[in-house]
Amino acid sequence: MRVGVYVQVPFCQTKCTYCNFHTGVVSSARFAPYVEVVCREIREHRQLLEAGGVGCSSGLGRQHSPFLHQGKQEWLCHEATVDTVYIGGGTPSLLHPMHLQSVLDAIRESFGTELTEVTLEADPETIEAEKAASWVRAGINRVSFGVQSFSDKELVAAGRMHRRADIYRAVPILREAGIGNIGFDLIAGLPYQTKESWQQSLDELAALAPAHVSVYLLEIDEGSRLGREVLQGGARYSAGALPSEDEMAEFYETAQEFLARAGYRHYEISNWAKPGYESRHNLKYWRREPYLGFGAGAHSFSGTERWANAHDAAAYVSALQSGRLPIEQLEKVTAEQALEEELFLGLRQLDGIDVSRIEREYDVKLAARFEPLASAGLVERNGDVVRLAPARLSISNEVFVELMR
């Protein structure tokens, strides 16, 4: 049995204009106290979760496997081994290497571990040779880079700290330290982005040949400064220089074709990888496998319940120092919700979903849901497998809305 661990580090050097995450810019003096309480949460997670009202607390740190009993999906607890760790944020590469070592030591002390993949999110300007060597000694073997763009004009407009030259400086440092599993994130739809600049970013990405690529469409919502400005019709944060939705969709489709030619396998709507370099940790989310989250705002999933810690880092630290876990959300997953998650998360994966398995495990018939979508060319069915039509991936959200009606 395998389980993933996510560790949230909600600190950044600056807040990007498009960011809608619960992160903040704070003094580095707050890093050590935060790491200390995260380690405490990891070591005391069973007691803390039991006190917080999370079910099956005696089995936490264990995996829950589905089985059928009298036509209903139930769960058994088995001894689990942590095989993936993802340290995300925020910008966790800001932490001192000793802090990251402490977190990983706490995980090893608290769980059985066979760590095949340990990912650290990093920004290019934070990379130093000594730090990278320390990361490797701690067990980190994968780095997810917030590249976003190779255009300095776009990076400046987005409020990023790094520049194109930092990317070229950082990648050799990581590889020389022994980290070959490097992922690049790009954002389609940044201010001042054009068809030509997007192609340039793709070309430069291919030249550096990361093992993994994520392409995200810029989100416009009230959770970010840029999003609020756009919704209010303002001009700050280069809101008037955004590409149109049609241009963003074209950028995504250009990336699909380009990355396929460059040897990357498209395995999830926003993710491509060289063979064998898919994100093992993120696959757990899309496959509804159990994971435990630690830190402010971290989410967890046991199979029957989802819960999340309070987002405010100061409140999180204060609560842990007083011996309690500030659980902000706790939800039991109903059979109906689980079915919707199977469909939504399954279709995000390019391999699609096994309809016969889902119909068998949930005692449902799905043909009526898929027939209108198939007739409209939005999904394809091949035997028992249903997947999103490759030409419709850029409008996947609209497909999901129709599917859930």
Strand content: 15-25%
Number of helices: 15
Largest sheet: 9 strands, mixed
The helix-and-strand class reads alpha/beta
Low-pLDDT residue intervals, each spanning 5 or more residues: 57-78
| Main sheet strand line-up | 9-10-8-7-6-5-4-1-11
The Cα radius of gyration reads 21 Å
**Helix proportion range:** 25-40%
Oligomer: single chain
Q: Calculate the terminal CA-CA distance, rounded to whole Å.
A: 35 Å
What does this structure look like?
With 405 residues, the chain is α/β, with parallel strands linked by helices. Helices cover 39% and strands 25% of the residues. The protein contains 15 helices and 17 strands. The protein has helices at 31-43, 45-51, 97-110, 129-138, 152-158, 164-177, 195-208, 225-231, 245-261, 280-286, 313-321, 335-348, 355-362, 367-375, 396-403; strands at 2-9, 62-69, 72-79, 81-89, 112-122, 142-148, 181-188, 212-217, 265-268, 271-273, 291-294, 299-301, 305-309, 327-332, 353-354, 379-382, 385-388. The protein has a nine-stranded mixed beta sheet, sandwiched between helices. A three-stranded antiparallel beta sheet has the order 12-13-14, with no helix packed on it. Strands 15-17-16 form a three-stranded antiparallel beta sheet. A hairpin with a 2-residue loop joins β9 and β10. The protein is globular, with a radius of gyration of 21 Å. The two termini are 35 Å apart. 40% of the residues are buried. Mean pLDDT is 90; it is low at 57-78.
